């Protein structure tokens, strides 16, 4: 079983509704935009409610892992990243990337979302390096490869693409919009 | 202002009496849309509790001050929170004790009629789910038909009227709720009857219920006569009680008829269903009072809260009994089926004794509306 990384873990075990959500809301205020919260709860109803609450507040519900009696919910705090202007000049849309994947072209897909986002849903065989780790893990990538950089909405991947280009990667393409609208095959980690 | 506790029984009285009630349901939208408390004069507002964590000021103008207001959630915790907030804002409000969980499990006993020699037949209305079960009482003995899993309700009720439970029946293997039949029979040493055609996979001992079986309750002869009436399941059996009442199980309802697909065999069983409804039931007296195992909509309740109607009336009014063309009937019951009940396979396996989920899980499996009929 993979361990999913989070920035804060909230223990709401043994608490009945509405407390898991009351505590989740409070814990969210301690996170920065884009960070991941893990909520551990035993109230079965918490899954549907956390999901609905996230939708109504704009946070991103990533998924839930069940470990015996404990439900581990993963949420990513709203960041407002969607509104930032994208600057990297080379882009591809989801559909065109999907045909490349389907035709088995030799391509490398780099997923720069948080590990917890990647864990629940990603393009098969894509590589996971969160944007925040890219600087120190850039050496894992090959400068000659054609790199398709993907995130949820195209903003973090835009920043990642700029960073890679500045470091001598020449064939870097940003995927727009990214996983939020991906209709091709996906995989998840063995959770 | 005080926060008032309202019990499921008190809400049930408001349903039966067609009273007005304003329900503020604070569950999430999907849960509310899937299943809610139904009443003919009830008004609804659904705002999830998690949208009210910062206060109720914004919704105050949507909450009437000239009506009883009831706050409802899944298990009561969130409704108490919201009720307290509204109370602090100066409103008189109630919350439903135990939430939808209690609503789903509440049974209201309604006496539907007298039987000969001081006997009586009671209908247990599971108002939140639309399940109906029965107790036939005569001379200190009782029989139970199609009981829900809340076994204590029946044993306590029987104790209260000084009756000993001697026979327990299920008209068929249920797919929408967990039967309490086996539990009650074990507790009271009663005989547990099941139609053998539905019981081929059960893991416990039972008394096979065959067409023509007649069971006497009490030392006078209140007879329960079994009538094989397949169609909802292959084993479905109806009962004629005291030559007055037809317990139709999930074959015939007041405003709809049974669906043949919950054991996966809609195409095979539609012919049986037709035969039962259009031939076997036709041979019975029009004067029999039909007592089904379910109601679907709150309008099916009589003024006293019971669900019962003469067979002759149903032959005129129930659409499912008035489809002359066999092909059209086949299309109606196989083509246009509502979604299947939550967890119906798991419920069937529980009723067969194959799995034994804990109470919490059983409760969860039964959550949601009833979907046993086609209209």
Automatic annotation (TrEMBL), chain A:
PROSITE patterns: RHODANESE_3, UPF0033. CDD domains: RHOD, SirA_YedF_YeeD. Residues 103-187 form the Rhodanese domain. InterPro entries: GlpE_sulfurtransferase, Rhodanese-like_dom, Rhodanese-like_dom_sf, TusA-like, TusA-like_sf. PANTHER family: FAD-DEPENDENT OXIDOREDUCTASE, SULFURTRANSFERASE YTWF-RELATED. This is Rhodanese domain-containing protein. It comes from Peribacillus glennii.
UniProtKB/TrEMBL annotation, chain B:
One of its GO terms (biological process) is hydrogen sulfide metabolic process. Signal peptide: none annotated. Keywords: Hydrolase. SMART domains: Lactamase_B, RHOD. GO terms for molecular function: hydrolase activity; sulfur dioxygenase activity. CDD domains: POD-like_MBL-fold (cd07724). Residues 17-112 form the Rhodanese domain. This is MBL fold metallo-hydrolase.
